[in-house]
Write a structure and sequence with these properties.
Structural class: mainly beta
Mean pLDDT: 92
Number of helices: 0
Strand order of the largest sheet: 4-3-7-10-13
Oligomer: single chain
Largest sheet: 5 strands, mixed
Number of strands: 13
Low-confidence stretches: none
Number of domains: 1
Distance between the termini: 17 Å
Shape: elongated
């Protein structure tokens, strides 16, 4: 994912960009982390829980999004594995001077696997511009 840039009144503005990928699989009778990738403002934390389902918390370290910001989340739950995925806080979409904020979510689940997708609510502020693909 490239680094988006914005411009407002001839002034270049810094944009938020982030990609995070998580893969978990059944191993020795419980779901465990297989792979983790984090870049930019997209972070994933896993609470220390010793039983299934595997838990992960998605975090946008920027605290919110506005026009031109881009975040991508990818979660892969293997066959017979189970995971609960949530977000740290409400997602905030602020006024956009130009362009729109974009969030791309890709969830995949193997045969007999389970995923609980439990994000907090999204708060859209006045004049927010936002698109999400799930």
């Amino acid at each position: 994912m490239g680094e988006p840039s914005g411009e407002h009144d001839g002034i270049s503005t810094q944009r938020v960009a982030g990609v995070a990928r998580l893969s978990c699989a059944l191993s020795e009778g419980r779901t465990r982390l297989r792979r983790l990738y984090q870049d930019g403002a997209a972070k994933i934390r896993m609470p220390a829980v010793s039983a299934d389902p595997f838990e992960a918390v998605l975090i946008n370290t920027a605290g919110g999004m506005t026009g031109g910001d881009r975040i991508a989340w990818e979660v892969d739950v293997g066959a017979a594995a189970s995971a609960s995925i949530t977000t740290q806080a409400c997602e905030k979409i602020y006024r956009a001077a130009s362009d729109r904020a974009e969030v791309r979510v890709n969830l995949s689940v193997g045969e007999n696997g389970r995923i609980a997708w439990l994000p907090q609510e999204t708060i859209d502020f006045d004049r927010a511009a936002f698109a999400r693909t799930l």
